[in-house]
Write a structure and sequence with these properties.
There is one protein chain. It is built from 3 helices and 8 strands, in the order ααββββαββββ. The protein is of the alpha+beta class. It has one domain. The relative contact order is 0.17.
Length: 134
């Protein structure tokens, strides 16, 4: 029983520990951060002529993270696509880390900038978007 409880706790920590706002980081710094802090997420090399982004996915395919980069390889937005089953954990985490501004919307302020975080639901997943305020 202790093993099951410990396993569930570790799983929840791994799933819920992403919500670091990495907008403004260089692509190579995002990769270093993910390698050091999210060993549960695997880098997936993607070739796309329209968008430049870094893609990470967990081993269980419950969560995919896309870091969209500008032409200077600076992260300009982040999308986290996760299974609906972990949405309650994500909402709890966002409530703890950021200021809630509306249903499914939070605000992050740091370094003199404001960032908007919101959740949009689809049939099978939810998408958490991190973007600079326009």
């Amino acid at each position: 029983m202790k093993f099951i409880t410990l396993s569930v706790a570790v799983f929840c920590i791994c799933i819920c520990s992403y919500s670091q706002n990495l907008i403004g980081y260089k692509g190579k710094d995002v990769m270093k951060y993910m390698k050091a802090n999210h060993k549960d997420m695997n880098y997936i090399k993607v070739i796309n002529n329209k968008f430049s982004y870094l893609k990470y996915s967990d081993n269980m395919d419950n969560q995919t993270i896309l870091f969209f980069l500008n032409s200077d390889s600076i992260c300009r937005s982040v999308r986290v696509i996760c299974d609906m089953s972990i949405k309650p954990l994500k909402v709890k985490e966002l409530d703890k880390l950021y200021t809630k501004s509306d249903d499914n919307k939070w605000i992050d302020k740091h370094d003199g900038k404001t960032y908007i975080i919101d959740i949009m639901d689809s049939s099978w997943s939810c998408v958490i978007s991190y973007e600079s305020e326009k």
